[in-house]
Amino acid sequence: MVMMWDLQSSSQPRQKFSGHTMVVTGLTVSPDSSQLCTGSRDNTLLLWDVGTGQCAERASVSRNLVTHLCWVPGEPYILQTSEDKSIRLWDSRGLQVAHTFPTQQHIQTYCEVSEDGHKCVSCSSGFEGEGCEATLWDLRQTRSRICEYRGHFQTVASCIFLPRALASMPAIATSSHDCKVKIWNQDTGGVSSGLRMATLQDEPVAEIGVGAHGMECKADDPHSGHFVALKSI
């Protein structure tokens, strides 16, 4: 079940969305905030009306264990990564697959779309440098691979486009189970800088994001099983 909360009053959820039969592993909200799309290990995507909490569309693809979802800004399209090594672009108008990118060699763990909606980035599982890459894709007419970013030695857990306020050039940031965050030149694929999260005693970096004070990270805590929030970088 997915629950929506009012940040001003957390006593009761504002809306509940119940329909998946297994754990929900991805969700994304439409640009106008009227729709919610959720994905699960039950191989299913559900499209919800945020106002009513009702399921508007349902789509299922065999072996499509969803790992992440991201709505394309200003468009009716939803980007999705999967444990079946696929990256799919869904049309929310009927919830049909509009495009499937070339199947990768490893599980696709995460995806994000650029602010202008022209590009997307996905990342891969892996071990000892095999796999462990992030890939930049064109979301426009060609929908082809633009660049790959290689240098991690374990699964890449997340990937984001950095806003220009945080980088002097177009840049992508990745986090990995190898306990590193890397910042890449989006155009050349070169590493701009590398950060080793020594303050977390070499714990895998689960996720990165951009907050009010810069780039923020979360790391897996092997003792509690919870996320540990890091200060901004």
How do the strands and helices of this protein lay out in sequence?
Blueprint: E1 2-4, E2 15-17, E3 24-29, E4 35-40, E5 44-49, E6 55-60, E7 66-71, E8 77-82, E9 87-91, E10 96-100, E11 108-113, E12 119-124, E13 126-127, E14 130-131, E15 134-138, E16 145-149, E17 156-162, E18 171-176, E19 180-185, E20 191-196, E21 205-211, E22 214-220, E23 227-229
Antiparallel strand pairs: 1-2, 3-4, 4-5, 5-6, 7-8, 8-9, 9-10, 11-12, 12-15, 13-14, 15-16, 17-18, 18-19, 19-20, 21-22, 22-23
List keywords for this structure.
mainly beta; disordered C terminus; globular; 52% strand; 23 strands; 4-stranded antiparallel beta sheet; WD40_PAC1; 233 residues
Please explain how this structure is put together:
InterPro entries: WD40/YVTN_repeat-like_dom_sf (IPR015943), WD40_PAC1 (IPR020472), WD40_repeat_CS (IPR019775), WD40_repeat_dom_sf (IPR036322), WD40_rpt (IPR001680), WDR31 (IPR040066). Keywords: Repeat, WD repeat. It comes from Capra hircus. The chain is mainly beta. It is built from no helices and 23 strands. The protein has strands spanning 2-4, 15-17, 24-29, 35-40, 44-49, 55-60, 66-71, 77-82, 87-91, 96-100, 108-113, 119-124, 126-127, 130-131, 134-138, 145-149, 156-162, 171-176, 180-185, 191-196, 205-211, 214-220, 227-229. The radius of gyration is 17 Å and the shape is globular.
